[in-house]
Fold:
Amino acid sequence: MATLRASVSLWSLLPGCRGTERACFQARTQPQPGALLQPLPRPCGVGLPCRRLGSEAESGSSEIKKPTFMDEEVQSILIKMTGLNLQKVFKPALQELKPPTYKLMTQAQLEEATRQAVEAAKVRLKMPPVLEERAPINDVLAEDKILEGTETAKYVFTDISYSIPHRERFIVVREPSGTLRKAAWEERDRVIQIYFPKEGRRVLTPIIFKEENLKIMYSQDRYADVLNLCVAQFEPDSAEYIKVHHQTYEDIDKHGKYDLLRSTRHFGGMAWYFVNKKKIDGLLIDQIKRDLVDDATSLIQLYHILYPEGQSAQEAKEQAAEGVHLIKVFAKTEAQNGAYIELTLQAYQEALISHSSAS
Structure:
């Protein structure tokens, strides 16, 4: 594919465009007859009213809005389950060896340094967004048969103005057949990376994301590394981003290696995925075995937030169940491996009683 830098004068090459006035339109806008280039929509409060998101899009809708990943209550539960292990957050990285630095501190200085480390760890543990997959772009703007065969390569016309958000940036492709169309998402991502490079991202997808290479990474327990590379390389609503995340979560669930993502920024997304898929049994058992009963309770609470009409949520509400009792209610109602959960919980309670007796 040949890529051209399109200045203002390039717009005069497009059919239906007169003069040198530059205009852009959103990637999902349907082309109107006789008007190829359309102006960007104005911000809310100017002109036409903005469309609302979620269940508010239709006025008078009585449907209950389903909780989303970014809801405050959901984020609070996920952050709590993620944990904060400073040794894991600030684990040694591969770098040039240098002599260690030692500092003598008073108790007050040590407490202040610890507080600063905790704040820095919270920044590192900020979870990547979880979004729906973006709709594909298949808009054809013009069919100019007169241009068919004049070129053997595609031409990409890109508005490289700095003031325009990347999602609203005007990018079109002229095919050798003469078809003028909007650039697909994958083409947009590559072209934007060329003109506006993002640190850690490559123009072409790294081979690490090939199926056979991902399996090698999984076998080496490098799940967090895969997800970190994925966040850097892809947009959060791209098909590749979602596919790699889901595939990684499934492999973790298959081998029960949930702890590898604990105290990382990816644990919340993994827990959210399992709750949405109604596959929390494995994670729940792992939490109980690791003496993280509070986290197990939080996981079930999150499950009830997403499925308030389920049998588990209804019985828990009727019985005002909390703590271990809440886990038992879930195990008897909606768990796929309820008997195993009850046995694990029983073993945990017996170990707790034995420890109390010994002390």
